[in-house]
Every structure is written in structure tokens, then in C-alpha cells.
Amino acid sequence: MKRIGAAALGGLLAASLLGGCVPYVDANKGTTSINIAGMEESGEKVPLKLWVTQSSQALVQGLCKEFADSTGREYTFSYTVTGPADAPDALRRDPAGADVFAFYSDALPRLAEEGLLAPAGLASLDESDPAPAEAASYQGTLYAYPAAVDGFFLYYDKSRLTVEDVCSMEAILAKDTGAEVNLAMDLTNGWYTSSFFLGAGCSLYGEKGSDPTACDFSSEAGVQAGKALLALSGNSRFASMNDEEILEGFRSGKLAAAVSGRWNADKIAAGLGDNYGCAMLPLASIGGTDKQLISYGTFLLYGVSASSAHPEEAQALAAWLASADGQRRALEALERAPTAPDLLEDTALMLPHPADDSSKAKAAARKRQTTAAIAAQGHSQVTMPSIPQMKQFWSAFEVFGEGLRDGSVTEENLQSSLDQLAASLLAEQGLD
Q: Which end of the chain has less neighbouring CB within 10 Å, N or C?
């Protein structure tokens, strides 16, 4: 499974339309222009249907108007409220229901296999560096345009830990923070625990996450990840906590830092107030070497239905919505974490503005910190496999995590515990 670099992903999405041509950046290869056949010759209005979220309607409508103005064509756009999580099933019910829609990257393989998703026509995969389009590709074909990234990261209390402290898990645990617990994470949730195995260089279901017979979590690298988890679970300044316990820990001042997802950001910010901080996942000592924890995450993609009656125009619009400018607008309006490298480097967009001390400005600053943390973690993130075998993932890691938490997994039986974890992850097919 290949790591997805947020900066590299953004490289292929500097798409804009000028006079019916779509310049696009093929990562590391410069700019190419593609003429969209018939867009200038025809005087007829082009109808395009979009599925959007309620919160993104105003933004998408504005981008669509600018798209039409830039091409010199006339369009009629229609919008239906259908969110990215619901779009795949909506497309199965009505393949012609939308020309352009947003969806999450974990749904892409199945949509591609079912023939519901048209290959992306206005960006190309640089074979010397395939990672930039990994989230939007299936079996070597690019199917969509990445527009945002989401996932989990580190939250912390800035009155107890510094920016330098949170770069290292060992530094977080070593510091006398004055809190009852320095670091929390739910050991029974495979989404979090798997970050140690991915950081150690392991992969689940092969490099591309599509082989139901492959899992190397019980390899030597997996053993090193397991030892790191054992050391973490045995540290007196660590606690395995679920979401509710983490929220209460921050609210009560008993917790200094925790690994959790974006969905908890507003509640954690409310508990910490001005001391709210967040960052990408820290380095962890694995096999005697500091290694970056790598997370499973999700990318928001714009795709085009294979049943679109206007595929060329729909591809152009999808590329426009996911362009660097579209991502900038989504960052400002919706706090979506971008993939475009220029936006990640723009501190005026990504970081808080300390000069404004109003409560509204502070709330906006906290949201920007969250967005910046998600975007930074995108550099060390992989797409989660979406094959049917993933049904085994949650229960397999829950059992392993419970063993870490209750002490039944030890260094003496670690290898057999990891063998069982791997067997459970492969169990659906009846594989050893």
C-alpha cells in the first residue's frame, strides 16, 4: 500500500479552463492542454446535474457559474442534496442521476468495478511517481479528482505540552505535564492501532490494499510494531480511552494529549478553550528507530458518472471543482483540508491569526488549526482498503487491542498474538 503525499496529490490538480481547453499539471511533468471537442462549436446549452451537500451548495453554485463564464459556453446546472457518503448507493439506484458528484475514496474501487465511474479524462498518472493519484486510482487508472483530505491526528493541551513536545510520542510520555494521563488512544480501535504497523512498513492486503490473501502484520516489522504498542500500553502515563473518555479527560483537565478523529474537534476545542492544540501524529520509537506513524484516512473526490450524457463537460467541471482555487474556496468556506501544495504552504490560510482576539476569531483559529493538522497528516496517510475482506478488520483489532489493554498480550506471546491477528484479518476467505 503506497503512502499518499498531500503535496504530490495537489500537483496534478492545478486545473483551470481557458477558452475550452483544460490545462492540467501532471505531477513533475509540467502543463498540458486538452481541447474539449465540440465545446466551442456548439451553441446549445449543456445541462449538468450535480450532487452536493447542503453546506456546500453556495460554494459549488458559485464555482459552477465561474466555470461556465470561463468556457464561453452556456450551461444549466441542477443541484440535488446528496452527500459523499450517500453518493455511491444513490448512483447504483440511478446511474444517470448526476453527472458530477463528490464521494469518499474508500468507495472508489467498487464503483470502478461496477462500471459506474468514468475514468478521469483531465489528469494523468505519472508512472515514475504513482503515489500522487493513489487515492483516486484503481488498478492503474485514474478515476477521480482529489479535493480534500480527512482523518485522525493528535489533540493536545497547549498549557501542558509545547509544539516541540508533540513531535515525539516519547517526549509526550516523558514530560511531567501535571495531568493524570499524558497520552490517550483507543487501543481496541484498529483505525488508530494500525498506524504503528503502517509506520513500521507493514501493509494490509498487499501494497495496493486489494489482495485478500496478503497481510504481513506478523512479520518481523510487525513484531517491532507490536513491541512498540506493548511499551505504550505499559506506560503509566498512557491510557486506552474511547471517544467519550477522551472528551471528558480534556474537559476535566486530566488529559494532556490524545489521538482521535476530526469529528471530535469541536467538542475537544470547547473543553480546552484557548489551550486547544492539534498536530499530525508524532514520531514513535519502533525497532529502536523513530518512525512516523502512518494513518488510514479518507480523501474527498470529485467523480463523473459513466452514464453522463455530457462526459467531456462533466470531466471539465469535476476538475474545476477540485482545482487549487476550488480547494482554497472550500478551505475558507467549509474548513476542508486541502491537498494542493500551495495551499498547505500558505500560512495566511492554514494557520491562526493571533492579532484578532475576539471570540469569533478564536473559534475560527481553532478550526484552522484542525484543518492544518489534517492536511499535515495527509503527508503520512494511506487509503484504507475497501475490499470485502475489510469486514474482518474491526473485530480482529478489537481482540488484539483488548489483549494489549488487559495485559494478556505480552512480549512472550506477542508473535502468536500477531499470528492470530493476521489469521483473523484473512479469515473471511478461510486463509491461514
A: C
Q: Residue 298: what pLDDT?
A: 83
Taken in order 26, 31, 32, 35, the sign of the CA dihedral is positive
SS3 content of the chain, % helix, strand, coil (to 5): 45, 20, 35
Q: Quick one: pLDDT at residue 312?
A: 95
Angstrom distance (rounded) from CA 26 to CA 9: 10
The 3-state DSSP class for residue 3 equals: coil
The residue-averaged pLDDT of 45-49 equals 96
Residue 327: CA count within 13 A, CB half-sphere? 36
User: Tell me, what's the pLDDT at 297?
Assistant: 83
The CA distance from 237 to 369, in Å, is 26
Look at residues 150, 144, 121 and name the one whose alpha carbon lies nearest to residue 322.
144
129 vs 350, more confident: 350
Reading the block at residue 143, the C-alpha cell is: 478515476
Rounded to whole angstroms, the Cα distance separating 250 from 267 reads 9
The runs of H, that is alpha helices, within 97-218 are 108-113, 169-174, 190-199
For the stretch 206-261, pLDDT in tens is 987 889 999 999 999 999 999 999 999 999 999 999 999 999 999 999 999 999 99
Global pTM value? 0.76
User: Would you call 226 exposed, middle or buried from its count of C-beta atoms within 10 A (0-12, 13-18, 19+)?
Assistant: buried
